[in-house]
Design goal:
This is GGDEF domain-containing protein. With 137 residues, the protein is α+β, with helices and mostly antiparallel strands. Helices cover 51% and strands 19% of the residues. It contains three helices and four strands. Strands 2-3-1-4 form a four-stranded antiparallel beta sheet, sandwiched between helices. The two termini are 18 Å apart.
Length: 137
C-alpha cells in the first residue's frame, strides 16, 4: 500500500468506527445485521447529492472529500451486495465520468468492528491498487 493511501485509510477508520457503534450494538443485542460499503472517488463529487438514494434507515457518512461510507441497515450478505450494486449504479448515473472504487462487508461475518473496519479499508485499498496495476499493464 502506498504510504499516503495507507495513512489516509488508517485516519479514516476511527470516525467510521464511531458512526457504526450504534449498529454494532443492535447486531449484538437484537441480531439486526447490517452491511457497510466504502466508496472512493478521486474526482470532486458531492456525496450529499447521493443521500436521496438511500433508505431512511440507512446512513451515508462522508469521511473526507474523496471517501464516504454507507451503512445499509437490516441487510445480510446478499441484500447488502444488492443494495451496494444499486447504489453504485446510481452513483455512475449521477457522476457519469467519475470512477468509483468500492468495498463491502457484512457485519455478521466478523467478531467485532475492530476487525471488520480494517478489512473494509484493506479491500478498498486492494480495489484501488488492482485498478492501478491494470492501467499500468
Amino acid at each position: 500500500m502506498p504510504n499516503a493511501l495507507r495513512d489516509e485509510c488508517f485516519i479514516l477508520q476511527e470516525p467510521l468506527v464511531q458512526h457504526i457503534k450504534k449498529y454494532d450494538y443492535r447486531l449484538k443485542r437484537y441480531q439486526i445485521n447490517y452491511s457497510i460499503v466504502l466508496l472512493r472517488c478521486y474526482d470532486d463529487v458531492s456525496f450529499s447529492q447521493l443521500s436521496n438514494c438511500v433508505r431512511q434507515t440507512d446512513r451515508l457518512i462522508t469521511l473526507d472529500q474523496h471517501t464516504c461510507a454507507i451503512i445499509f441497515d437490516s441487510t445480510n450478505t446478499e441484500t447488502g451486495q444488492l443494495a451496494a450494486n444499486n447504489f453504485l449504479a446510481h452513483c455512475k448515473c449521477t457522476f457519469c465520468s467519475s470512477q468509483f472504487f468500492t468495498s463491502i462487508v457484512n457485519a455478521n461475518q466478523y467478531d467485532d468492528i475492530d476487525t471488520m473496519v480494517p478489512e473494509l479499508f484493506t479491500q478498498l485499498h486492494d480495489s484501488i491498487e488492482n485498478n492501478r496495476a491494470e492501467l499500468s499493464s
